[in-house]
């Protein structure tokens, strides 16, 4: 905790907050500057992070966010966050996605394969040490590599000094500020209670990113450690983890206008990016990705329409693709509605005028905006080629599996600090686990169709942006018939869908793999030089952009006379606000609560609005227990509030003024998908499942009152 205290002294690190009172995903070091007591917080702000029993020790990163709710390692997150682990545990005979899962004893809790949990222990500024690796004579790619190498050295040293801990260096301001975070890293996570999909995903993709919402998007899991308390892989001998702090649950919930705050691990935001970047996103990247994801979803839904087993194989993948697709479509709509690119251009025009008004500023930064735009112009020109190359490995399972094992063989020959991160000793067990878990979801007809579509897209690329390995594969003749013939033979002869074979490959050399003459291994080897070339170009672009953005941040602060909050980057942040409705359109007002009545009104008896009969019966009997809202006279299901959130905040606890859990964040409204680029008090709203619905479903529907008892209720 000494480093937590030290961070407060770093007054210039994240700087004074001069933005709107409710905007901001604030680094923990900034909390004491926010005067949260004047906003409505009733506990001492120091209780959030500045003691050995701080609230931050109740917050876990699980890919998104979760929070401990008992002394026995029980934590709550979203149904959709746990979805992949639930899918991995499901079979046709035990369909936990459809039916839900409940462990009535600790012995019945199921391993959540692929899930880990991180708890932030401390952090410190290492900017000077990181940037000391950069030398004036370095080219752009060398600059990026030098920073990557130095951060690996810092991480390796820290983890050696602190056995059992996990270290990460996060870039807070591009090319300018770097923070070392130290985490407790828990590897044995188990499923405790997961509601059926008809509750946990009620409304499905139709309601996703929308309000009013009636989704019970929550699940309970438990973290385990070795008997001596140290982090350990899954073992029957392990015992529940005992967190330093867990959140008390406020069964009385919240009311409209109440102060609340969230702690969590938001993903990436881009609020300090230029108009040239935003235009690239709006005109090039997001439309392409949204359309490609929609194409994949349509294919996989068709493949699984008549076979529940196939549908289960595709379930998690479809869910992830659909979430991103709808998010991107919402962002595109919001960017157009706000005229965001043009607005940013006007802001930059004024900034350019400020720069040119002073000869020194002009000589140092006169071309900075054009220099940044030139990098994004290069990305535009290379986009189609680089994207098809990337999706050949990312969307086609057997190509991706082959590429991973081939690259692992090459990378694992190098000294540890010179490897790509996925193949370093500290990360390789997780890389291997993810690969083997992905093999469980392989379905050849889908994979073959995806591969064919990408080969057709490759055939449409123009010189000089042809994929050489693909052209050589077909000797320049890439007709649809040739593609079909190649695919049929490749899938018939390859063993890349055999988990045992793939695991054996992870111990072989590249030369041994070449002798096997597997078509996908051969393709991976042929694609590898192109992938390396693109990687080098991407490092060069980052090496160019980072110092440019560092200078841009400095000149903008000088121009505006204020400092900025760093963009979100998967590190622990706080955001605050109030329970609050909004007006998404003329003459339309949405209140901040939905209720059980709304669930029944939406129910059609068909997915995604197929409410379980038992929940209907409980509602008709008005068996609400202690969870009835005093004004609404019903069980509240979801709540709306004006905090500043983004991806990664899924599962973040919604915490009241007394530091108690009142909801579990899981989404934003459609208008708020634009949050990654801009925030507005008028339209930025986040959505949580109300804790009263969580408790009511757990106690009354699932019959798991023992979990409420464990939470102290």
Structural summary, described in words:
With 713 residues, the chain is of the alpha+beta class. It folds into 3 domains: 42-202 and 210-251, no CATH class; 280-558, no CATH class; 575-710, Thrombin, subunit H, CATH 2.40.10. The protein is 47% helix and 15% strand. The protein is built from 27 helices and 21 strands. The protein has an 8-stranded antiparallel sheet. Strands 2, 3, 4, 5, 6, 10, 11 and 12 form an 8-stranded antiparallel sheet that branches. β19 (653-656) and β20 form a beta hairpin. The relative contact order is 0.16.
Short key terms for the protein model shown above:
713 residues; alpha+beta; Thrombin, subunit H; 3 domains; 8-stranded antiparallel β-sheet; disordered N terminus
* Content of β-strand: 5-15%
Please give the radius of gyration in angstroms.
26 Å
Structural class: alpha+beta
**Percent helix among the residues?**
40-55%
Count of domains: 3
Taking the alpha carbons of the first and last residues, their distance comes to: 31 Å
- Low-confidence stretches at least 5 residues in length (pLDDT < 50)? 1-21
The overall average pLDDT, rounded, is 93
Number of helices: 27
Strand tally, please?
A: 21
Give a quick summary of the entry.
The chain has 713 residues and is an alpha+beta fold. Helix content is 47%, strand content 15%. The protein has an eight-stranded antiparallel sheet. Strands 2, 3, 4, 5, 6, 10, 11 and 12 form an eight-stranded antiparallel sheet that branches.
